[in-house]
Amino acid sequence: MSANLDRLKGLYEAFAKGDVTAVLGAMDDRIEWREPDSLPYEDQVGPQAVAENIFARVMQDVNGFTVAPDEFVDGGDTIACTGTYSGRGAKTGLSFSTPFVHVWKFRNDKIVYFRTYTDTKVWADVLGVGAALSA
């Protein structure tokens, strides 16, 4: 098991405990954070932008939001993780549980890249933005 994999597993545990500071601290100052184009969360650069425009918004939009990793594929500096997102839409009241794939890239012990793949239709329904995104 690589040091990056150990680090990443610890970050999922920290996020689950609400320790967002630890997660943000593991990011490079210029991290590239990529979200699916069809969701209202845009790509971000830098930990502060991720905190404000991804983490804060998701926590506002999804009650009881959880990220549960299942399996890791360790490629050294690139690691993929499968798992499940779950929660309840704050606006819609709809609950969801949907799979994800995360791709993480490390350089010099810091996260320099993140991308998420998930069922964007489920997210749009839960967030109540499906019609707005289709228009």
Strand order of the largest sheet: 2-1-6-5-4-3
Number of individual domains: 1
Our Rg estimate from Cα atoms comes to 15 Å
Major sheet details: 6 strands, mixed
Tell me the CATH architecture. Answer: Roll
Q: Outline, from the CA principal axes?
A: globular
Contiguous low-pLDDT stretches (5 residues minimum) are: 131-135
What is the strand content? Answer: 35-45%
Taking all residues together, what is the mean pLDDT?
94
Helix content: 25-40%
CATH fold name: Nuclear Transport Factor 2, Chain: A
Q: In DSSP terms, counting alpha (H) and pi (I) runs of 4 or more, how many helices?
A: 5
Task: Describe the structure using short key phrases.
single chain; 135 residues; alpha+beta; Nuclear Transport Factor 2, Chain: A; six-stranded mixed β-sheet; 5 helices
Note the topology.
Blueprint (H helix, E strand, L loop, with lengths): L2 H14 L3 H6 L1 E8 L9 E2 L1 H15 E13 L3 E12 L5 E13 L2 E9 L1 H8 L2 H5 L1
Parallel strand pairs: 1-6
Antiparallel strand pairs: 1-2, 3-4, 4-5, 5-6
Task: Tell me about this structure.
By secondary structure, the protein is α+β, with helices and mostly antiparallel strands. It has one domain (3-127): Nuclear Transport Factor 2, Chain: A (Roll). 36% of the residues lie in helices and 42% in strands. The protein has a 6-stranded mixed β-sheet. A hairpin with a 3-residue loop joins β3 and β4 (78-89). The protein is globular, with a radius of gyration of 15 Å. The termini are far apart. The model is unreliable at 131-135 (pLDDT under 50).
